[in-house]
């Protein structure tokens, strides 16, 4: 089994220290050292023209969840600066009507053909679907004006280029700003930031190519303009690994496997469907997620009575080993390109056909009834569910730490994005809805790995939970450095929870 946290770890994947000529930076204490971070907020908006020096037009290509959110946030934050934001769409795009409805139009040259927008922009933000980007990036690169900045919010394209012997075009800065939340969260919390300064979704940033030395401040300005309350540095390669692994593990795939397996377990134990749903899905997305968001991982166990702690401990001890093995397997397949190839192959196989949904399983039929009775029915933390979920989250944390990811990236990709962005949406609608309505890359990954987690827990973890808890494993959890890392990150958390809007029927997650 991979080593538990506490031993020597490779922590040199990327330097987290940087300087800015525009923004005031802070040093955040993390286990084993410090990281440089930028605390965001609308009070920094007057500095945006300086950060975007040389940028007169930003082209956002794509109107998926991230494109829809980022184009609007950038436009609103840069209003009055003379920097224009335009949306570029492929010919015949069905998204054009929605873009017009949100104020991007051909009449004022803020909506147009994607290659035309790319050719006319100083910063081109590539937010089209991953597989489309893999197929059409050369056309986009060829359209760029000399020295135009290439902007990404995801490392998928880097993985594709490396897998196929390609590279970004020389002479162009390449930067990434990657919100640690789905597009709906990026927009919704930005809107809440008008009332509570600093409300937003945390972002990582990366500078992949910087031929003229302006990339760091430009990336930071982009993050501030999105409303990010906390911006930390990574590399495009590191972001790609953590993001793709995370959505297949604790952010989507593992959550689906956890709640499906637990629902079955509680039904077999004699619970009616509503009770089983409350003990599984409702618990993870509700009280467990809220506790972690507000007080950290350890607080979930600490709030239980002695009997509950014993149940938690046995579930945690039995779940951690198979969960860690699966996260390690996912990481290896992402790192060697297997997962990327599977996404591209699936897209070729499926083409324009609609993907089958997972929401047909019996448990999802009672979700609406559970949500309808929340006002008069309080659900408490179910200790066994809590042990399974926290163990799986910790397994991802440990795998990322062993692989050398910086602590800000570890806690954002493994904890904060889950409890402050994705799980609140799952609580409002359910896990199956989220998986069935996320980006194609995330959806394919969740559909591939969710059943693997489900099988591992049903066949390995739950039978093993009858044994005594592993005291050494629990001591490692209790003294885990992630608690200090989360406490440091919590100081930058905005003082507001996301207010989830009613479902609109569109895609709700992913890039």
From TrEMBL:
SUPFAM superfamilies associated with the record: 6-phosphogluconate dehydrogenase C-terminal domain-like, NAD(P)-binding Rossmann-fold domains
Obligatory cofactor(s): Mg(2+)
Residues binding Mg(2+) 2, per UniProt: 243
Pfam family, one: KARI_C
One Gene Ontology term from the biological process aspect of the record: isoleucine biosynthetic process
Residues bound to Mg(2+) 1: 243, 247
Residue ranges annotated for the KARI N-terminal Rossmann domain, each copy included: 38-238
Key words, A-Z: Amino-acid biosynthesis, Branched-chain amino acid biosynthesis, Isomerase, Magnesium, Metal-binding, Oxidoreductase
Pathway: Amino-acid biosynthesis; L-valine biosynthesis; L-valine from pyruvate: step 2/4; Amino-acid biosynthesis; L-isoleucine biosynthesis; L-isoleucine from 2-oxobutanoate: step 2/4
Domain KARI C-terminal knotted positions: 235-377
Keyword Cytoplasm on entry: no
A Gene Ontology molecular function term of the record: metal ion binding
Family recorded in the similarity comment: Belongs to the ketol-acid reductoisomerase family.
UniProt protein name: Acetohydroxy-acid isomeroreductase
Organism expressing this protein natively: Streptomyces davaonensis (strain DSM 101723 / JCM 4913 / KCC S-0913 / 768)
